[in-house]
Design brief:
Layout: E1 2-3, E2 8-13, E3 18-26, E4 29-36, E5 45-46, E6 59-67, E7 73-79, E8 84-89, H1 92-105, H2 111-129, H3 133-150, H4 157-173
Parallel strand pairs: 1-5
Antiparallel strand pairs: 2-3, 3-4, 6-7, 7-8
C-alpha cells in the first residue's frame, strides 16, 4: 500500500492492526502516520488527512518507527538545525479526551453531573492505556448516552451537542463500530 499515493514505509504494527510508518510528503521532508492495516490482496492507496500526519516541530524528517497497543507512537526526527531527537506521540484519542475533559470542566456544571461525565472519560483513557480499544469505545458511548439523557436538564442542548460531537470524533479516531 501507499499512503496518499506517496512513497511509504511501514515500521510497526500493534495487536489492533494499527500501523505506524512514515512517508515522503515533499522532497527533503517526511512525516509519520498511523493507519488501520489494509486488508485484502493487492495494492491499495490509503487516505490520511495531512492534518493527521505526525511531525516534530522544527524537523525536516519525522519517522514513526513503532506503535504499542495503547496507540502511542515512538520514532525519531532529524532537526533542521542539525542532529536528531527521539519522540513519543500520544494517540489522537488521548489528546482529544484531554481536550473534552477541559471543555466539560469549563461548563460550570454541578459537581455530580461533571463527575459522572469525567468518570466516563477517565474510564476511556484507562482503557486506551491498557490497549482495550473496545472498552474505550464503550465508555465513550456511555458518555454520549449520558449527554443525551441530560440535555435540557443538567446540560444545555448546546453543551450536550458539544460533548456528543467530541465523543463521536474520538470514537472515529479509535475506529469504534
Amino acid at each position: 500500500y501507499r499512503v496518499n499515493g506517496l512513497p511509504t514505509r511501514s515500521r510497526g504494527i500493534n495487536d489492533s492492526g494499527r500501523v505506524a510508518g512514515w512517508l515522503t510528503d515533499a522532497p527533503g521532508s517526511s512525516k509519520g502516520f498511523v493507519i488501520n492495516a489494509p486488508s485484502g490482496g493487492g495494492y491499495v492507496n490509503v487516505a490520511v488527512a495531512a492534518a493527521d500526519y505526525i511531525g516534530v516541530a522544527g524537523a525536516t524528517f519525522t519517522f514513526a518507527e513503532g506503535i504499542n497497543n495503547a496507540g502511542y507512537v515512538s520514532g525519531s526526527a532529524d532537526m533542521a538545525v542539525g542532529g536528531s531527537v527521539g519522540y513519543v506521540a500520544a494517540p489522537p484519542a488521548v489528546a482529544q479526551i484531554a481536550d473534552l475533559s477541559t471543555q466539560i470542566g469549563g461548563f460550570g456544571l454541578p459537581f455530580g453531573t461533571e463527575n459522572a461525565l469525567q468518570a466516563k472519560l477517565r474510564a476511556a483513557q484507562a482503557a486506551i492505556a491498557a490497549g482495550d480499544i473496545s472498552g474505550a469505545c464503550g465508555s465513550l458511548q456511555a458518555l454520549i448516552n449520558q449527554a443525551n439523557a441530560q440535555a435540557g436538564k443538567k446540560l444545555t442542548r448546546a453543551q450536550a451537542d458539544a460533548i456528543i460531537a467530541a465523543a463521536n470524533a474520538i470514537r472515529a479516531s479509535l475506529s469504534c463500530v
